[in-house]
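Possible race condition, two jobs.
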Amino acid sequence: MKILILGGQGNLGTQLVKVFAADFETIAWDRADLDVLDFSLLNEKITELAPNLIINTVAYNAVDKCEDKEEFELALKLNAELPAVLAEIALERQITLIHYSTDYVFSGTAEKKEFTEEDTPNPINKYGESKFAGEREILKRAEQGLNFYLIRTSKLFGPKGSSPVAKPSFFDIMSSLAQDKKELTVVNEELSCFTYTLDLALATKRLWELETPFGIYHLVNEGACTWFDGAEALFALKNIEVDIKAVRSENLLRAARRPKFSVLKNLKVKKLRHWQDALKEYISK
């Protein structure tokens, strides 16, 4: 079996490479290897490689910048056009495709309820729109026989990848800020779920290895919380004394609206451990 991972030096891609390479021939492509928006070359390279599975972790995820017209166009290329091209290639060559989406495809503005795999997306920002557009492209090919896993997840944390565009996670940013500041302001709304990249990589591998039925899956660590809850738990675990001030979303100068409640409920496969247990493991490494 041959596995191709796109974005293999990103935060999630790095963990996927580690997990899959333990048992399979695993090839990781990143920016230095290929411009994924050169669709002709991408098609040529994948045809030459002939993988059994393609895992796409490439994404535009600058939520606020995405509200800008030019940035939104780039987001659509990476989050919608690229998945469409990969789905076409995979469909034509009978390759299984794994693609990741986000809780931000949901509005989270109505009643507080957990979103299941069957709920209809209704994004409230441009980033969410671009990711939902990518979902539709994959589901369109699924009707034609594409073998796919569409995995929605949220609030990723874990080791930073080696890619030049890899970003530190929320917990890493908080730890860094606490070294210089004794008071931090954190949003105490926006209820959703943290996801440890190692747990997500292992769950992704399990989906494929167990030949789980193709479709949409929600993979997040158990336990809904706010960013404030996350910061509070982090500092308690690390015995860091810092005063955390809660702030409402509307008091922050951010271009994009965020869902107030976007908890993803996993109804279809084995649940991941609680996010606080995953966080304990992460900070102990």
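Job #2 (started ~2 s after job #1):
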Amino acid sequence: MSESEKHASSPASIGEALATLLRDGWCGLRFLLGWRPPQAEIRASVARGALFFPLFGAAGGSIVAEMLILVGPEAPAMRALLPVALLALLSGGRPALDLFRFLGGGILGTLFLAGLLGAEAWAFLNLDGNLRVIALVLAPMLGRWAYVVQAYGSLPARSDGFAAMMVRHMQFTQFATASVCAMALSLMLINALGTLVLFLVASLSILLRIFTHRRQGGVSGVSLGAGAFLAEAGVVILIGSIARLAAGS
């Protein structure tokens, strides 16, 4: 074994690699909670920590599900609105704001965002028991995965923006790890329906990515957040719609 190989496999090197991984994961978690770091070095750390995004989303959704089980709201309005509010709070409200800004704000942005939130509340009204818990776990998990799908292999709209650092430092390792986690958890939680949910999120993310590249030359921090919010809401609406159809039949 060469000296370089010995050094690479030394306990000190392994410890440094683990410390870097934990730091990247911590920065990624803070980003998903609504924090937007100004420093380029920390932005790069957020991108490297993207391999944890689906796991963080699933963990956050599990916490929301447990909170709702403990609270146990009986009124239909609370059963519909409280999950929507808690999921928005889980991300610091940033993705919803990003979608509003992506649509240009104004009346169009307000109406579209209100309609999407209303559809999400309607979906939760149709979800009960395990299916409700599954939706609460899957939606934030796949919404966070959408960040990775949009950023990997894209071009940034601005060379100095946050998205530029995400694109530059989003390597295959992050994309592959995050994607395998998202796919495995989806199929484990909801079996064959997980394939449909994954297809929805991937399609939304890729279509938005194509649109932003044509419209503004690449992805931006706002478009990444908008895509994450669309994916999260889309998962809830899809599962709620399927539950409604199943109940009607």
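The chain has one domain: 3-248.
Logs attached separately.
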